């Protein structure tokens, strides 16, 4: 018997790019409810980076309605400060179908300043940072601006500029270490190369994310502040991704992997409390064949007992070792 009440756990957004004609597809869990875009009427904007016209990597912002239909597409050119829209702004507003839909007309100067605050930020190694996001037309400010050593970094496609302000003390110390290394083996590296790896990774990730959850930015700042003096390894970069994608990624595993994990978890983390590991294994059980719960939903199962930093620390290893997989929500070719 067909149960008419049971709905599919996923929603599929399909659109055809008006610039290159490619069909693109985004699968999201039905439970996934992003906050609405503040400057549109009930439309949610998702970012799709793909090889578009002339084989150029381009970001398309799709404005999606409550029925998962893409109502409008706006292309953002990497080298340009503003939108390139297939839209004629010289005409009367009432003739503009986008205006009728309530989609705001983009203008060139509309970067919005956003101050990001965090009570837990310790300013151990960084003073603050600034993120200029050309996709979302926002500039995020965190902590002190213009203090210490500025490290500017650009994302791969140039949509995201991050300037990190390293504290003077840490900058001096890293510079000294670099000088020492230079004398020893005459490597032709630049100072702060390892530090930059963090920022570069963050910039590239922010550029490719379908929807940036600003709530995660204070956590990102705290994380970077804590770890920036050491070179990031694979696991650390996964942790950073986990943080950035906490509310928009789906962790999943298979039953046999989960069962294997039960046998090895204490070997993997000999220094972690057994109770905490038991909680983590319990949360991994909820990842078996999961296609709807986000990483945050999984974390919420144990959040009363396990701090987020510990959860990410352990999950970072589980993902790196293949016990848990992470599906980041993103557009794929159709
Ligand atoms: Zn395209």
Describe this structure in words.
This protein is α+β, with helices and mostly antiparallel strands. It has three domains: 10-101, no CATH class; 112-232, no CATH class; 249-333, no CATH class. The protein contains nine helices and 14 strands. The chain has helices at residues 97-101, 168-185, 193-208, 217-227, 234-244, 255-268, 274-285, 295-300, 308-320, and strands spanning 10-16, 23-29, 44-51, 57-64, 70-76, 83-84, 112-116, 126-133, 138-143, 149-154, 160-166, 249-252, 325-328, 332-333. Strand 1 (10-16) and strand 2 form a beta hairpin. Helix 6 packs antiparallel against helix 7. It is globular. Zinc ion (ZN) is lined by residues 17, 19-20, 22, 50, 52, 60.
Question: How many structural domains does the protein architecture include?
Answer: 3
What small molecules does the structure contain? zinc ion
Q: What kind of sheet is the major sheet?
A: 5 strands, mixed
Derived structural class: alpha+beta
Helical content class: 25-40%
Q: How many DSSP-defined strands?
A: 14
Point out poorly predicted stretches: 1-6, 80-91
Radius of gyration: 22 Å
Quick summary:
The protein has helices spanning 97-101, 168-185, 193-208, 217-227, 234-244, 255-268, 274-285, 295-300, 308-320; strands at residues 10-16, 23-29, 44-51, 57-64, 70-76, 83-84, 112-116, 126-133, 138-143, 149-154, 160-166, 249-252, 325-328, 332-333.
């Amino acid at each position: 018997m067909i149960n008419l009440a049971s709905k599919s756990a996923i929603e599929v957004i399909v659109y055809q790019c008006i610039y290159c004609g490619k069909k693109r597809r985004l699968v999201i869990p039905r439970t996934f409810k992003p906050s609405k875009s503040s400057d549109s009427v009930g439309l949610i904007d998702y970012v799709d980076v793909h090889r578009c016209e002339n084989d150029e990597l381009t970001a398309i912002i799709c404005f999606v309605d409550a029925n998962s239909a893409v109502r409008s597409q706006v292309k953002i050119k990497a080298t340009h400060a503003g939108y390139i829209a297939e839209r004629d702004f010289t005409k009367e507003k009432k003739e503009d179908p986008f205006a009728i839909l309530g989609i705001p007309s983009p203008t060139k100067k509309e970067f919005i300043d956003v101050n990001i605050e965090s009570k837990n930020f310790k300013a151990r190694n960084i003073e603050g940072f600034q993120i200029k996001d050309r996709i979302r037309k926002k500039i995020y400010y965190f902590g002190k601006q213009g203090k210490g050593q500025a490290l500017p970094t650009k994302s791969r496609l140039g949509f995201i500029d991050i300037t990190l302000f390293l504290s003077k003390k840490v900058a001096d110390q890293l510079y000294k270490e670099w000088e020492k290394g230079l004398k020893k083996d005459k490597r032709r590296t630049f100072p702060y190369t390892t530090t930059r790896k963090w920022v570069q990774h963050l910039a590239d990730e922010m550029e490719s994310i379908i929807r940036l959850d600003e709530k995660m930015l204070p956590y990102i700042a705290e994380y970077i502040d804590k770890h920036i003096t050491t070179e990031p390894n694979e696991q650390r970069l996964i942790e950073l991704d986990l943080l950035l994608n906490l509310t928009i990624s789906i962790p999943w595993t298979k039953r046999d992997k989960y069962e294997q994990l039960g046998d090895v978890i204490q070997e993997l983390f000999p220094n972690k409390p057994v109770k905490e590991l038991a909680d983590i294994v319990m949360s991994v059980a909820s990842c078996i064949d999961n296609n709807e719960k986000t990483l945050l939903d999984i974390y919420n199962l144990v959040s009363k007992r396990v701090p987020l930093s510990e959860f990410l620390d352990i999950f970072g290893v589980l993902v790196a070792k293949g016990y848990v997989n992470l599906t980041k929500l993103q557009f794929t070719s159709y």
